[in-house]
Structure formats: C-alpha cells, structure tokens
Amino acid sequence: MSLQQLVQPPASRPLHGSVEFWMQKARELGGRVTVEFDRKRDGLSFRPARLTVFIVDASDVRVDGSPDPTSELWDEEVNEDYISIGAKAVSVENEMERLGYSLKFKLEPVEARYGDGYFNSMLVLVLTEHGFADAPSVARCLERTSTNPPSTVQPQFTHARRDIESALRSAGSRLTAALGYDAGIAQQILTGAVAYYLDERFHITNRERLGFG
Questions:
Q1: For the segment 70-96, what is each residue's pLDDT rounded down to a tens digit?
Q2: 70-73 and 32-38: which strand pairing?
Q3: Using CA atoms, how far apart are residues 106 and 194, in angstroms rounded to an integer?
Q4: How do the domains of the chain map onto residue ranges?
Q5: C-alpha to C-alpha distance for 14 and 59, rounded to whole angstroms
Q6: Mean residue pLDDT across the chain
Q7: Which of 18, 129, 141, 146 is 20 to 30 A (C-alpha) from 61?
Q8: pLDDT digits (tens, 9 = 90+) for 120-134
Q9: Distance from C-alpha of 28 to C-alpha of 32, rounded to nearest angstrom
Q10: DSSP secondary structure string for all residues of the chain
Q11: Given this model, what pLDDT does residue 127 score?
C-alpha cells in the first residue's frame, strides 16, 4: 500500500473484528445476529455492561452449528457496529435498556458543551416539548427531577435544544432505518430508553431505595 493510499478517506469505516466475524457467520448459517444487553444491579451501583452475541433463525431460535455466544464488555462503537448490521436485542424491553445505556454516551458531549445544570434544564424542556412526559415511565422520572427552567434569552438556548434533539433523533432513526422496527415500536423503545437514562442520571430508583422517593 502506498503513502498516497494511506491518506485517502475510506468509503466507510471498517467494522470491528468481532462484528465482522458474527456477520459473516450469520450469512454462512442463514441466520441473523442478535445481542442481549446485560447490566446487573449491585446494590446502588451496577456491574459492567456487557453484550452477549449469538445467531438466531427467523423464529428466534439459536441456529444449529453457530459459534458459542460471545460476551463482550460494552463498547459504544462496537454496539453501533452491531446496530449497523441490523443486530436487534433479544426483546423490546432489552432494546430499551440497550439504547437507554447508549444514550449516556450520545448525550455526554452535549452535557460537556453546556454544563451539567443547563443541560439538565434543557433536557427536561426538550423531553416535555416532544411528549415524552405523556409516558408513565418517563413522567415518573420527571416528577422526581428538580431543575430550574432554562433561560431562553441566552444564545446557547437554541443550540442546546438542537443538540439534544439531534442526539435523540439519531438514536430513534437508527431503530427504524438500521434495526427495522416499525415506527410504533420504535417510539415505544425510545421512550423506554429515555426513562432508563433519566432513572440513572437523576438517581430515581436509588433515591427510592434509600427512602427519599
């Protein structure tokens, strides 16, 4: 390979090795790759998040002759690769948890850009504007969240709203475009994911466990 070739932009980023392996095996066996998100509670904290990967047929039964399931520590980029090849979670509920955990990484740059307090205020505003508060799981979290209304005269107001909306839109569109969920199920998953994210961000369940709910 020449020096000139090394500096040319690739047509697309290559998949991580483990994702490429499972995609090829699924093609050989006539099945599809699926993942199971696992993040067990350990008191008031969690054990490290993991993805278990395996191959199933059209009836969601593990394909005969497929490799042993691989359990991988969470890597956001690897998870995005699995999404790009259409690897759904084992259930709608598990997909909510998987996306809810992923939202932390998608929204971290926005939080860093605007600061914790202003981000929290804008997040609550955006979620309310977009109807998330109509879902009981999200309403439960928002009712237990104490934030001040964000200043609307600051220049960052429009930018923060746009950035939060963009992160949510990116996550939601992947559910339909890459994973193939219909719009109704995708909305259900995104709503559940937001509730998962809020619960941890604002320590809702932990506060209830400690008697501060």
A1: 999 999 999 999 999 999 999 999 999
A2: unpaired
A3: 12
A4: 1-90, 91-213
A5: 30
A6: 92
A7: 18
A8: 999 999 999 999 999
A9: 10
A10: --HHHHTSPPSSPPPPHHHHHHHHHHHHHT-EEEEEEE--EETTEEPPPEEEEEEE-TTSPBPTTPPPPEEEE--HHHHHHHHHTT-EESSHHHHHHHHHHHHHHHHHHHHHHH-HHHHHHHHHHHHHHTTGGGSHHHHHHHHT---PPPPSSSTHHHHHHHHHHHHHHHHHHHHHHTT---HHHHHHHHHHHHHHHHHHHTTHHHHHHTT--
A11: 96
Residue at token pair 């998870």: 79
Phi then psi dihedrals of residue 32, to 5 deg: -140, 155
Looking at residue 123, its amino acid is L
pLDDT at 10 over 70: no
Mean pLDDT of the 33-57 span: 94
Mean pLDDT calculated for residue range 10-38? 91
Helix axes 136-143, 116-129, angle to 10 degrees: 140
Q: Enter the tokens of residue 168.
A: 């949510």
Confidence bin at 212 (pLDDT 50/70/90): confident
Sign for the pseudo-dihedral over CA of 26, 177, 197, 60: negative
